[in-house]
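Researcher: Structure for this, please.
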Amino acid sequence: MNFRLLSALAAVPVLIAAAPASAPGQLGQVQQHLQSVQSMTANFTQTDRVGKVLTGVVTLKKPGKIRFQYEKGVPILIVGDGKALTFIDYSVRQVQRWPIGNSPLSVLLNPDRDMTRFAKVIPGADPRIISVEANDPKHPEYGRITLVFVRNASAPGGLMLQGWVALDSQNNRTTIRLTNQRFNAAISDGAFRWNDPRRNSGPR
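Model: Predicted structure, token format:
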């Protein structure tokens, strides 16, 4: 499967990694939202640079757990179990793992990180929307991410994450749109287990 998909997803939280002091109020709202979210589930629609669309469900639980479950027939899975982020491609029985702390996803899963170095608010005409763009100059391979929030008084911190646009280091664009977001419900740790295709030992 295309590894741009993984970089696009993994890059998501880089966005919340930081921001210049030019818009402390809005960035503070983003930080407050992230700190208010202990768990989340949402449906996602992913569109790549050639217009291919995939759908699925994302599940998040702090600290450190996340799962991107793709629609039936898509043989890939991305899971963070609190320690490592794992990319599984069942079609070729391939598994790749690396520490969550080495992934941009760590920002989404640990919003206590500094938001003053890598991100900025993008001005827009609609005051209900906050767009935050981020990139890490020390890691250009992460690409550039723009996360989009909409003001919503019923959502944690008064913001609702609507999705993001990721540009990888080759300027390939992946767009993620979220719907049916649900926050702070109880989620079992079992939701972040996965079957290892390299052996028949059951879920990990």
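Researcher: Any notable elements?
Model: Residues 80 and 191 are 10 Å apart (CA to CA). Residues 24-36 form the longest helix (13 residues).
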